[in-house]
Amino acid sequence: MNKRMEKLLNEQINLEMYSANAYWAMCSWFSDKDLDGFANYFKVQAKEELFHAEKQFNYIHDVGGKVTIGAIQQPESDFNSVLEVFEITLSHEKAVTKSIGNLIKAAFEESDFATHTFLQWFVTEQVEEEATVSQIISKLKMIGDNSSALYLLNTELAQRTFNAATGGAA
Q1: What is the DSSP letter of 144?
Q2: Superfamily of segment(s) 3-165
């Protein structure tokens, strides 16, 4: 693995770890509001992000690179509404998608076809992430101030689980 790709992948690991921390902060915010289903959603998200970081960590080692863990920025932990949390989440997932795209572009420029292939899994994952968050935002906008409907969505999100075999939600 060349140094450019090693550096970029290490930065991606850091972004994935930041994502996990951000989602833990969101989980905590929802827990404080007794919205356990929403808290569960973000708990699963945090586990997914750590899975992504570990997958990248293992890949770097598998191809003879060196993992360097950097400082992780403190995430926001105070929010104004349920909708705001998901809008922030969508914005963040779009930034992660862009970062993955930049990694793929760099891998192509470096003729690093192994890394290019490795990153395809993350492209598919990001499509799913953005679609899921967008759907929740649509539901929240339909719900508006209807607490009964919010309760039903909270119950739905409580069913979400982390699938360790695939690294995704079930």
Answers
A1: T
A2: Ferritin, core subunit, four-helix bundle (1.20.1260.10)
